[in-house]
Amino acid sequence: MKELYVSSDGMSAEYPRYYRQSLDQLKREQRKLSLCQKGSENRNKQRIKVAKIHEKVTNQRKDFLHKQSKQITNAVDAVCIEDLDMKGMSQALNFGKSVMDNGFGMFVTMLNYKLMDQGKQLVKIDRWFPSSKRCSSCGTVKNTLLLSERTYHCEDCGMKMDRDYNASINIKVEGIRLLLA
Ligand SMILES: [Zn+2]
Q: Where are the domains of the chain?
């Protein structure tokens, strides 16, 4: 989950180092806050400190998402994405807040209006589409694919590919099919 996205043209975006550092700082200061005595002056000061870092983190994330969505919008005519149910996903996988904090929902919202502004399209692929389980080379669909399997290995045609990259190609093909339908 350290990447915001992986695209079918081989692009991916990792959150910048300064952002991850701010997140670490936030965690550290939140831990300190939890140790401060309730009702104390120290706790009050620490609470304000945490709130300020929180604001910084939020702004850095927003800024990053704006830049990424703008860059993609300017480069292409349509974007096909998987319509992930982020809330269900974070609950199901027990990621807690981390998936939400990854900002993917906000990223999709920004992409959507930036594309629309330019008369371009955002195509959402049904979340039940087997983007990860399908071999982008021969079309075979696996029965099971563990989250821990980061490389897709097709037993039918022998294709080996990064799991997310394989999924992104499937999403692109399905998106084009929907656009032409
Ligand atoms: Zn295959």
A: 3-128, 130-181
